[in-house]
Amino acid sequence: MDLSTAREGNLAIITVNATRIDASTAIQFKDAMRNATAEAGDHVILDLGQVAFIDSSGLGAIVAAMKQFGPGRKLDLAALTTNVDKVFRLTRMDTVFDIHGSLETARKRAAG
Amino acid sequence: MAQDNDNAPFILALDNTDTAIRHGLSQVRCHLMGCGVAGDLCGTVEIVLAEALNNVVEHAYAPGVHDTIMLKIVQNGAGIHCEIQDCGSPLPGLALPQGTAPPLSGPHVGLPESGFGWYMIRSLTDDLHYRRIRGVNCLGFTVHPTGA
Whole-model pTM? Predict the structure, then answer.
């Protein structure tokens, strides 16, 4: 799966360049996230702005990515589309992640 | 895909693979959008169908067994009624799983990465029913616009 990473000081923004994270791509997403976060700092924002759909496999893959990121490091989410936001709210995973409405909001909050 | 009227059933035959399901879901979305169904309801239908069809692909068939899953979709008033049929293994106990949401308490290392599927299906549907008829699994439900 195509992910692109932009470093902004201590912050790394990882953008998912795909419209779906689902049962057929969840493993590729997890592998790509492992590679992308290996050299990222302690604070990553996952930009999901292009992702129009996730299923429970995709949700599980995002949770797995957060867990493999490890304690002491922080993985936030940004720019959830309507249907992706619905899955996070329904499963209450929106209470587990810090979710920013947009990448701009996330940047500002990270800058303090 | 154009239909003569909104109540004509939309029927798809899908291979029991992840990629066929993905393609089928996009066909369903095109059909529903073409019928003028609101984007939010289309999205909810897509979530539920993805979970139900992925369950069939992952749990009803042994690896390497190829089969066809039948999907029928009908507009039912303001709702969308869906029926899924497959000839794979029956659901355990011939019953729908409870679909309890996995707990999210405790440290992040213990967070669940699966087990949300039936919870999502139950939360987003009405009239959910399952029957095993002559070796065929028949799952049906309706999705209404007031979903989550």
Answer: 0.94
